[in-house]
Design goal:
- This protein is an alpha+beta fold and about 500 residues long.
- The chain has two domains: about 280 residues, no CATH class; about 180 residues, no CATH class.
- About 45% of the residues lie in helices and about 15% in strands.
- The chain is built from 23 helices and 14 strands.
- A seven-stranded mixed β-sheet has the order 5-6-7-2-1-8-9, with helices on both faces. The protein has a three-stranded antiparallel β-sheet with strand order 10-12-11.
- It starts with a helix and ends in an 11-residue tail after the last helix.
């Protein structure tokens, strides 16, 4: 079998997908005219993905294209909402007839783990083309963010759909989840924001693509998401569009969710007073009793916890994950983590009652790093490394931002040993400098001469401070620290520094 990434990144594959899309749109002239009228260069979702799946596996039956989703970015001024907040967190969207309807299949906000966000504000149909208008806001992080096309793909609910075609730059955009699907043909839920819709789509895709799926595992994922994720990214209601699809698959969906018409007091406040003809809403609850004990702070943290703890892995990798995640169970330091949480047991938040229920959470640094770094545990380490990092960052929390650029736990451990040796020799003042350094920069930085490091005028706290005050050359101090750490960071030692 050919290399998947070579296949996805080849000009030949791009050309073949484009040809398939043009054929399904009628002809090349119709396709080009529509793309020029829409003023967009990005097509994503089932049409592109199904074409790629059929090309890769050589099965033309899998190339089912019902519509072609074309994504067009709009500005906030072009949205149908007056209030700036409602542009991002509304309860409604504008459908193809121009009616303001309840946010059903479209309209959820998606926030990437990079911090970028996008939200569909309107969709309209022109023949086989589905025009999807969306807002996009890039990440404010100093790190290089993801492309807006990648953020769009990350918001798709199933791994088999996470690809698109960038006509402007003549290339295919895809995610690691789509690569995995091409390799295994195993269907998975990747974004559990709309459990009812995803349940329907899972069963439909299994049939259309003739692929496998651990359906019970995926339904547990969707069920727990409904219980645990509480934000504007989670769909708690369904409207007429999804309800009609549900009726066609009622026998399947009812195994996992119960739907009922929403009571007047259950209608979102932002929708009350609207025309009742447009407020046909249904609420739903999971049938499965399965739940998790881990506390969830966001959709991304839930997805990460599910992947780490509830997705099958080999024994060695799971053991490494457990040593970080549940370190204190091994060490018996039960007071360092949080094991119970106060849960409201009715809706009256002023006079209601609550009870303590098991809920695991932790403020430990290694715990938080495991949730945000995919490769954090993929190295050789032991409990002593985990405990050392947690203890050090608890004593010196100002160093955390500097350490976050490390990719693995052992990389952090070795860097902390170097930092601690500087601290022992020079004093705690060094942390104020490290707090303003980018770790990724000084690791790569080779432009500064060794003479800067060994210059005796720059070796003491007093002289460095004088330089800052007198000459205000803070960047020179950063250079010195970078060189010092560059020289010492990979020195291997068997002991653990005390502090």
């Amino acid at each position: 079998m050919q290399n998947i990434k070579d296949f996805l990144e080849s000009k030949e594959t791009y050309g073949n997908v484009l040809t398939i899309l043009k054929c399904h749109s009628g002809n090349e002239h119709t396709f080009n005219q529509m793309m020029a009228t829409i003023d967009s260069g990005f097509i994503a979702g089932g049409s592109v993905s199904n074409a790629l799946i059929s090309l890769f596996h050589g099965d033309k039956k899998q190339c089912v294209i019902n519509d072609i989703d074309v994504y067009k970015q709009v500005s906030e001024a072009q949205t149908p909402y007056d209030d700036s907040r409602n542009q991002w967190y509304p309860a409604t969207y504008v459908n193809e007839e121009g009616l303001e309807m309840y946010d059903d299949s479209y309209g959820r906000i998606f926030v990437s783990d990079s911090g970028a966000r996008m939200r569909v504000t309107k969709h309209s149909r022109r023949g086989i083309f589905n025009i999807v208008e969306y807002l996009y806001e890039p990440s404010y992080s100093r790190r290089k963010g993801k492309s807006k096309e990648t953020v769009i793909l990350e918001g798709f609910d199933l791994n088999c759909c996470k690809s698109g075609i960038d006509i402007t730059n003549e290339k295919i955009i895809y995610t690691p989840e789509f690569v995995e699907f091409l390799e295994t043909k195993k269907l998975k839920v990747t974004s559990p924001c709309a459990p009812i819709q995803s349940t329907i789509r899972l069963h439909k895709k299994m049939k259309d693509l003739d692929c496998t799926c651990d359906i019970e595992h995926e339904m547990r994922f969707l069920s727990v998401a409904l219980k645990r994720v509480h934000s504007g990214q989670m769909m708690k209601y369904v409207g007429p569009e999804t309800y009609n699809k549900y009726l066609h698959m009622k026998g399947i969906v009812d195994k996992y969710f119960t739907l009922r018409r929403a009571e007047p007091n259950e209608i979102p406040h932002s929708l009350r007073g609207k025309d009742e003809r447009h407020l046909m809403l249904w609420v739903y609850e999971p049938v499965m009793k399965f739940d998790i004990l881990e506390n969830v702070n966001s959709l991304n943290s839930f997805k990460r916890i599910w992947d780490l703890l509830y997705t099958v892995k080999n024994g060695e990798e799971q053991d490494k994950i457990n040593k970080i995640f549940y370190k204190n169970i091994y060490l018996g330091k039960m007071d360092e983590d949080i094991w119970f949480k106060s849960i409201n047991i009715n809706d009256d938040w002023l006079g209601g009652t609550s009870e303590m229920k098991p809920s695991y959470d932790s403020d430990r640094f290694t715990y938080s790093m495991l949730l945000i770094k995919n490769n954090y545990h993929k190295c050789d380490f032991d409990l002593k490394h985990v405990d050392f990092i947690d203890t050090f960052t608890s004593h010196y929390p100002e160093i955390k931002m500097f350490l976050k650029s490390c990719e693995t736990i052992i990389e952090q451990y070795e860097l902390i040993r170097v930092i601690n040796s500087i601290r022992i020799k020079e004093g705690d003042w060094v942390f104020s400098f490290l707090g303003n350094l980018q770790y990724s920069n000084f690791v790569r930085d080779k432009m500064f001469g060794y003479e800067i490091l060994i210059n005796p005028k720059l070796k003491t706290k007093e002289n460095i401070s004088n330089i800052i005050i007198k000459e205000k050359k803070f960047r020179d101090v950063n250079r010195v620290m970078r060189m010092y750490l560059n020289k010492h960071q990979f020195v291997k030692r068997n002991d653990i520094y005390s502090f």
